[in-house]
Amino acid sequence: MTEIVLDPHTPEFAADPYAVYARMRAHGPWFHAETDTWMLTRIADVERVVLDRSMVRALEDGASPEEAEARRRRMNWHDMPYHQRFVQTNLLESDGAEHDRLRAVVARAFTPKAVDRLRPAIAAHVEGLLETVAGQSRIDFIEDVAAHVPGVVIGRLLGVPDADSPRLRFWSEEVVRFFDPGRDDADKARAEHATRAFHDYLVDLLDRRASVPEDDLLTGLLARHGAGDLSRDELIATVMLILMAGHGSTIDVLGTGLLALLHSPQADADLRADPGLLRPAIDEMFRFDPPLPYFHRFATADCTVGGRDFPAGTRFGLLYGAANRDPDRFDRPDIFDIHRPRARHVAFGGGAHFCLGNHLARMSMELVFTALHRRYRRIGLTGEPLRFKPGLSVRGLEWLPLVLERA
Ligand code: HEM
């Protein structure tokens, strides 16, 4: 069996994590000693874990306060009052009835129908954005276009002013970076600092919204807080999560999705000829290069996964990016194929924590790709070298320089 080396911070891994994933998949569950985690790469094993409610995000195993503190220190999750209060305890990090209560408070805002109400405003934003680069024949798609999409999309849903989205992007990236297994003390300090700044911003915004209500999710959440359905801290943590969860991920998948299309001229031509292919094409972009490829769960009971027995307390790494290339589910998985027969992938996870923002993310993608194709006869790569961000928890391009020919 080939030796497996998982070092997510090397340029080699960033360039092609899928070669490493393929070796791990051949092995089955594989132990990563540095993070004390059993990594799962086969889609059946990943689904087995996410669909099992005895598998949790946060382990409450009756440990004494001293043990719990020791564990936090081992995971470098201590001495971060704001991060602990507003990030480490949000709805994504909670389980069971507590999780379901918090999720129920916001779920209605994310249904396809609710999200569709934002379509005209977001389409207009995307048009305006492309108009700002209309005179340029060469752009960096990431910084000039993609980076300006999610802040405004999520901001419109919540009721956050468009002009604040650059700050929100910065804080989101700082806070989220802390979740990467390779984080260090500097990342930790920056995450705590960003959480505090984010919190102060939201307190101010919520105070203003409380005095002048609007037709938006912030106003709706304030009403639920007033009715006693969620505490003040839970309200802030939930808003922060919504702003963070879809930020970098949308930017990244816009970039990798476009790159996949440009690497496959036939797919690009087929999509231009038949807009009915847009939804399957976008689904394939999510399968092919999911922007959030790694999450975890803890087992609360002894269990069997991938034919192996594990004790309660085991930490499982869910490599969604690897599972989406599993040949047991997807024929020729390393090929980007927009005509692929529909098969369930795990870019948005599964089970209780299944991504709330998936309709919103898909709609943003639809609107951007439709506008790009309408405006540009040809979109090409400049040939300059591309680099992917390092790390296990994200997958996205550092930049995507393009040459454009107007239609
Ligand atoms: C752009 C692509 C996106 C991808 C690939 C993605 C992926 C995911 C994944 C994999 C999870 C599950 C995490 C787990 O298994 O532990 C998740 C959860 C979540 N996502 Fe997304 N997401 C995206 C966009 C968004 C957007 C735009 C929003 C909101 C505006 C959002 C909000 C959430 C929330 C609130 C959760 C937590 C749900 C829960 O714990 O019940 N996501 N996302």
TrEMBL record:
Stored InterPro entries: Cyt_P450, Cyt_P450_B, Cyt_P450_CS, Cyt_P450_sf
Keyword Heme in annotation: yes
Any one GO MF annotation of this record: heme binding
SUPFAM superfamilies (UniProt xref): Cytochrome P450
Pfam families named in the record: p450
Keywords in alphabetical order: Heme, Iron, Metal-binding, Monooxygenase, Oxidoreductase
Keyword Metal-binding assigned: yes
Chain coiled-coil ranges: none
Family of this protein: Belongs to the cytochrome P450 family.
Matches recorded under PANTHER family: CYTOCHROME P450 YJIB-RELATED, P450, PUTATIVE (EUROFUNG)-RELATED
Role of this protein: Cytochromes P450 are a group of heme-thiolate monooxygenases. They oxidize a variety of structurally unrelated compounds, including steroids, fatty acids, and xenobiotics.
Protein name: Cytochrome P450
Annotated source species: Palleronia salina
